[in-house]
């Protein structure tokens, strides 16, 4: 599903990165661990096509997203990649249902109210369909951000520190919800985090080294 090779990136000469090669088959999960500042979010943004690598290839399915530009890239991402951001990105003037409709619209997907209800139901948010983002608790917002990420049934779900602000109970609940969603659609799930609690939940993990060098999945 995802193959990265020799991916490097630089913000400037003080912040240069070489990332491990990844090979994540369809339907499998991967945890990417690393200390603060080693480039976890940067790597996730490269995989999502939000940043362009300096060198290397990032293949999602048959497509090297490092080669896509503009609208092509946006449409590809909208249809194939779901991102659970550190902080949820909602349109505050729209209800949760309308936010989800917007995500489908932006990916050129037909509206499907059954799909929206099914996803919200799976996340325990069906009664929040008509709520505005500000009316949701922090935990509900976290779950709603998972809904935004999975509504288009992407084959690749990327999550940036989805549990950092959560207590143990909610941490494992969010992981369970993410895993359940990926099983439903046979998607691959990649979580980047410094949250060591997640290690026991994922058989495969890779740690980004403090001193950047290329390594591979252990
Ligand atoms: N836009 C930017 N311009 C310049 N440097 C940046 C930029 N974004 C991030 N950096 C630097 O790149 C390094 C890696 O940042 P990144 O956010 O990828 O780390 P991280 O491992 O996700 O950290 P954390 O766990 O604290 O979120 C940091 O030193 C950061 O200051």
From TrEMBL:
Entry GO MF terms: ATP binding
SMART domains assigned to the protein according to its UniProt record, in alphabetical order: AAA
Cross-referenced SUPFAM superfamilies: P-loop containing nucleoside triphosphate hydrolases
ABC transporter domain residues: 2-214
Native source species: Echinicola rosea
Keyword rRNA processing: no
Record protein name field: ABC transporter ATP-binding protein
Highest taxon listed in the record's lineage: Bacteria
Pfam families in the record: ABC_tran
Keyword entries, A-Z: ATP-binding, Nucleotide-binding
Classification via InterPro entries: AAA+_ATPase, ABC_transporter-like_ATP-bd, ABC_transporter-like_CS, ABC_transpr_LolD-like, P-loop_NTPase, Sigma_54_int_dom_ATP-bd_1
PROSITE patterns, sorted: ABC_TRANSPORTER_1, ABC_TRANSPORTER_2, SIGMA54_INTERACT_1
């Amino acid at each position: 599903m995802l193959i990265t090779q020799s991916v490097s990136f630089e913000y400037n000469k003080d912040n240069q990165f070489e990332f491990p090669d990844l090979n994540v088959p369809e339907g499998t999960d991967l945890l990417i661990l690393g200390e603060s500042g080693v480039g976890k979010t940067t790597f996730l943004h490269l995989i999502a096509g939000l940043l362009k690598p300096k060198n290397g290839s990032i293949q999602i399915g048959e497509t090297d997203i490092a080669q896509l530009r503009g609208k092509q890239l946006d449409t590809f991402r909208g249809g194939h990649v779901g991102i659970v951001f550190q902080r949820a990105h909602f349109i505050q003037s729209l209800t949760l249902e309308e936010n989800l409709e917007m995500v489908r619209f932006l990916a050129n997907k037909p509206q499907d109210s059954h799909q929206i209800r099914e996803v919200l139901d799976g996340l325990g948010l069906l009664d929040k369909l008509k709520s505005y983002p500000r009316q949701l608790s922090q935990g509900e917002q976290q779950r709603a951000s998972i809904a935004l990420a999975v509504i288009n049934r992407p084959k690749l779900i990327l999550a940036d520190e989805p549990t950092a602000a959560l207590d143990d109970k909610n941490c494992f609940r969010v992981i369970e919800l993410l895993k359940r969603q990926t099983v439903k659609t046979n998607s691959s799930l990649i979580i980047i985090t410094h949250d060591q609690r997640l290690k026991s939940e994922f058989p495969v993990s890779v740690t980004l080294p403090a001193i950047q060098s290329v390594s591979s999945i252990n």
